[in-house]
Each structure stands twice: as C-alpha cells, then as structure tokens.
Specification:
Strand content: 5-15%
CATH architecture of the domain at 430-526: Alpha Horseshoe
Number of helices: 29
Helix content: 55-70%
Distance between the termini: 84 Å
Shape: globular
C-alpha cells in the first residue's frame, strides 16, 4: 500500500465535511473576490502576548511590525529599537534570510554557539566574512551589508546583534518563518549558500562563488533542518508561509516573471510538505491572499513590496484564528480602511468610515486618526479633518507617520503646525536611513513632490559621508527624471567612498546607462587608475566608444605595465591596438592573450585574421 494513502470512503466523505472544498463562484459573496481570504484551520493555539521569533525574507519584517502592534513580544523589533546605531542604515533588514539554506545555516550556526557556552567569539565570526581590503570585511551571510565592507570591529558588533536575535529562537512560543527565494549563491570552497551583496561579485575571490537555484529536494531538506532546530524546544510552535514578495531580478535566463513563479511554486510545495510532516507546524496562506487579490492597492508602486495595511489584515486574521479570545476585528477593519484610503479607493473606504470615525478603542491603531483625516479631506469634509488633526497635534502624540501628519496639516491650512510636525518627524528618524527611505517611497507614491524633495535634501545633508545612502538617493532623482541630480549624487557617493572599488562601481552605473561623460568624470577621481583593473577597463571602454582607440590602448598599456598578467586587460589591449590600426602590435598582444587564455571571445578571430595577412604585416 502506498505510504500515507487515505482509504476511499474517508476521502469521499471529505468534501461534504469541508465548507471550503469547492472553488468559489462569481455572483455571490465569496472568499476569493474582491479579496482572497482562504479559510484558516489552526492545529494549535498561541497565548496572548506570546514571544514570537520571526525569520526569513523581507516579508518577515512586514509581519513582525503588526505582531508587535497586536501585543506580542517580538525580539526582532525590540532589538532593532534598542540597537539604533547598528540598525540605522538598514533597520531590521539586517536579519533578512531569503533562502531555506540560509535560514538553516544561520540557525545551526547560532545553536552551536548557544549549546557551547552562549558566547560569541571572533573565531565564530571570521568564517562568515570575506576580506576586501585592509580592515574591510563583508559578511557573506548578510545581504543588508555595505557592499564595500566594514571594519572588523563593526562586523563583530553586527554579528553580536544577529546572534542576540537568533538565540531567542531557542526559547520562543511561536516561530514565524517566511520562505523567500530559491535563487541561491554558493561559496564553492565550503558548499554553503551565501547572502552576499552583488558588489562582492566584483571581488577577485568571486571565482569561488557560483549560482545554482535550489531544487525541491534541497529546499525541502534545508527547511526540515531549520525546523528541527526550532522544534528542539517542546513549547515552540511554527507558522510557515511563502513570501508573496517577488524576485526583483533573476540570475537565470528566464523572464523574471517565469523565474519567480518557479521559485514560489517550489517554496509553496516545500511549505505544504513540512506542514503535513509535523503537527507543531501550520501553514498560513499569506501568499494566496496577496497573489489572488486582484486589487492594485495591495501592492506598492514598485509592484514588489506589499502595502503594510494589507499585511496587517493578514496578520489580524491569523491572530484571530490562533489566539484564544483575541479581539482583532477593529484592527482588521482599520487596516482595510487604510488600504482603501492609501490606494485612493475612497468609495471602498466609505462603509468602513462610519464604524471607525470616533477613533480607535484599540491603542495599537495609532495610524487610524491620520487615515480618518485623509478620508475626510478626500471627501471634502475639511473642517472635521482640521479639528481631528489639530487635536492630535495639540496632544503631542507620537506617530510613526509624522511626515504624512505634516502633509495633512498643511492640506487643511495649518502651515505652522505642519512645519513643526515635519521638523519633529525628521528629528525622530534623522539617523535611520531605512525609515527615511520608507517615508520617501510613500511620498513618491502619493505624489507629494515638494515634501519628497525637501526630505531628500535633508537626508543628503545627514548622510553626506555615506556612499551607499547617497547612491540610493541618486536613484530617487533618477525616478523623478532629474538626471543632473542623479549624476551629482552618484559622483558624491564615489567621492564619499573614495576607494577604487567604490569609485569604479559608481562609474559602472553610468557606463551601463550609456552616459560615458559622467562615467569618465567619476573614474577620473582615481589618482592612479592603472592600479585598479576595473578603472583601466572603464577608461578604455569610454575611449573606444568615442572612437579614440589610441587613447584606449594607452590606458590598457599603463595597466599592463603594473599588472602584466591581467589577461582581461591584455585581450582588450589587443582589440584596441587593432582598432587603432596598429596591427603588428595587436598580433603580438593577441598571441600573448591566447597563450594566457584571456577568455575574450574576440581574440581567436583577431589573431587568425592578422596571421592570415602575414606578409602584409611584415611589410
């Protein structure tokens, strides 16, 4: 008999006992349209205020925000708040782990330390790091890591924080795990997956890295490994889901839409299998709710990230199902109202407004007064909105949406109060780039151009010495169509970094966009470009594009004078010489490039063509 087979009669009775066994039909209220809300069937319960460990992709960060508001103890949130110096640039993204293998490896790494003596040492951290330069390291297992590296002491401090978070997994009531990707980079020296910044691929040691997506078997094995660590505590239960946040870029040859569907299909199958395997593991269908809800308001403008209010509704339903005597109905209503208001669906918000207009009975709904005022302004009830906003401003209440608060105050003519609130909001998050970036994305989405520009200018002043932040600010200007500001910020980022790796990285952004003047301006910041293989190639590429082939050859010759075995430069040098009409020199360089196996596909044809002209060349 096939293992796990259900007898015919039992299986035949199931549809009659399952109210959700039949696909919904259009024309009647259902759980698929206009929003998808699959039935939840909990196999365990969770106590109010329980400790919840959250791990996985960036979607885990969305989830934990709402669990914190709903009264749970969430270590990732607590540690992020209490370690602002370490989390200022990336927030809780420092904890992101996107693939099943990364999740399993991090848990096993922490469990080994926890069982040994619960004390992190340098010897525990060093194998995780790649040295880029003197006292500059990247953590290969942390994607939210500056791609140009940090001093070792700073990486140790970050790892202490990560370990402090991971160890809470071993004494939690509930673990929530979000599976994000199967596209995986590997360190072939140790057969481990890594979560590295793409810039690390430009490092000489990149030859030790490779790319291979997880197949179902390996993804399943890694997820089971992770669960075995989490479930060593008999008190711990697990909720697992597939993150609905799609791939932004694929490293396969497929269309990213196809690659994403493959990734999510594998991970959804894995989540289903491990749920069937263990009665302490449940699946919750966040993936289905997001992907099958056909409303634009579910998604942010980038079509990648999920609107926080919709995530809040998902988690309110989960809490309602799993927590005895949970009272989340008002929270879910408020999140539905926020989704409608922020998405501009005022008609959808109207029926919810009447039940919420008197303000929140639930203290976790600190954003509701702003949503109510937003709705009132949109429907022409400006005076009610003004009174509501002035009362809130006069109370001195803190809000996580201080900039929206200022915008709404200005919308009802309270300019002085708006400016005061704007300054207060900036002071609260001035050193936290992750929060500033989130606010700017929201402003961009809502078309608040003047506020968006003012905040970008403030952020530039605050982070004037941070090349990563300046580069990300540059992207905002690019999205606004302000190319001169985009170029200025990228040049500022290159100057702020100052290392050859940083300068050539930002130059490459312009080369990729076809802006050779801007690329040349950046790479020319290097005092000795011939010391950088990337800079020499960039200068040669720019010169060749301008039909200045002798200049291109000169850049490459200076590089070869200091690094004669730079085979890539040698191949480019042979091509540049040929384009400059210096064919005898091109043949010599081409033969040497062939002997060193430069990997440049143009070289064999170049050498064959020049050798075929043998007598002409000698003449």
């Amino acid at each position: 008999m096939i293992d796990g087979m259900i007898p015919f009669r039992e299986a035949a009775r199931r549809p009659g006992a399952n109210s959700a066994a039949t696909w919904p039909a259009r024309g009647e209220p259902n759980r698929l349209e206009p929003e998808c809300w699959p039935v939840l069937r909990p196999s365990f319960t969770v106590a109010k205020g329980a400790t919840v460990f959250t791990m996985g992709s960036c979607f885990a960060r969305n989830i934990e925000t709402h669990l914190d508001r709903l009264g749970f103890a969430v270590p990732a949130v607590t540690l992020t708040r209490s370690n602002s110096a370490l989390t200022a640039a990336y927030g809780a993204e420092i904890f992101n782990k996107y693939t099943p293998t990364s999740i399993a490896q991090e848990l096993e790494w922490a469990r080994t330390i926890y069982d040994r003596d619960d004390t992190l040492t340098e010897q525990d951290v060093m194998p995780l790091l790649l040295q880029l330069a003197e006292d500059r390291y990247v953590d290969l297992h942390a994607r939210a890591d500056p791609g140009f590296g940090l001093p070792f002491d700073e990486q140790m401090a970050r790892r202490r924080l990560i370990y402090s978070w991971l160890r809470t997994a071993f004494d939690c009531d509930l673990a929530v795990v979000t599976l994000g990707l199967i596209e995986t980079w590997w360190d072939t020296r140790v057969d481990q997956s890594i979560e590295m910044h793409p810039r690390v691929l430009r490092h000489p040691d990149a030859k030790h890295f490779g790319f291979k997506p997880l197949d179902y078997a390996r993804a399943l094995s890694a997820t089971r490994q992770a669960l075995s660590v989490l479930l060593r505590n008999p008190r711990t239960k697990v909720l697992i889901t597939t993150s609905p946040v799609p791939l932004e870029t694929t490293f396969t040859t497929d269309d990213v839409i196809v690659a994403n569907m493959m990734s999510k299909s594998v991970l959804r199958a894995v989540a289903g299998t491990v749920t069937q395997d263990n009665d302490r593991v449940d699946y919750f269908p966040s993936y289905e709710s997001v992907m099958l809800t056909k409303q634009a308001s579910v998604w942010m403008n980038d079509l990648i990230h999920i609107e926080q209010a919709f995530v809040g509704r998902i988690m309110a339903r989960v809490v309602e199902a799993y927590v005895v005597d949970a009272a989340t109905s008002q929270y879910e209503q408020a999140m539905a109202f926020s989704t409608a208001v922020m998405g501009g669906a005022i008609d959808d918000a109207a029926p919810l407004y009447q039940g919420l207009r008197d303000g929140p009975a639930d203290p976790t709904l600190h954003g509701l007064p702003l949503d109510l005022a937003h709705y009132e302004i949109a429907t022409g009830d400006t005076e009610t909105a003004r009174k509501r906003l002035c009362t809130l401003h006069g109370s001195g209440a803190e809000t996580a949406e201080g900039f929206r608060f200022a915008w709404l105050l200005q919308s009802v003519g309270e300019d002085a109060a708006a400016e005061e609130q704007r300054e207060r909001a900036f002071a609260q998050i001035a050193g936290n780039w992750a929060m500033l970036e989130a606010v700017m994305v929201q402003m961009q989405r809502q078309g608040r151009d003047d506020e968006h520009r003012r905040l970008m200018q403030k952020a530039e002043t605050t982070f004037v010495a941070n090349p990563d932040v300046l580069a990300r600010l540059a992207l905002f200007y690019r999205d606004r169509g302000e190319e001169a500001e985009h170029q200025r910020l990228l040049q500022a980022a290159a100057l702020a970094g100052g290392t050859p790796e940083q300068i050539t990285y930002y130059a490459q952004q312009f080369l990729g966009a076809g802006d050779h003047d801007a690329a040349h301006a950046i790479v020319s910041l290097l005092k000795s470009p011939e010391q950088s293989p990337e800079a020499s190639r960039q200068l040669a590429t720019i010169a060749s594009t301008r039909q200045r082939f002798d200049e291109a050859a000169a850049h490459l010759k200076r590089r070869l004078d200091v690094a004669p075995d730079d085979v890539i430069a040698l191949g480019m040098y042979a091509v540049a010489l040929s384009q400059a009409g210096r064919e005898v020199e091109a043949l010599v360089a081409g033969r040497r490039a062939l002997s060193l196996d430069s990997g440049d596909s143009r070289i064999p044809d170049l050498v064959a063509r020049l050798e075929a002209r043998g007598d002409d060349l000698r003449a």
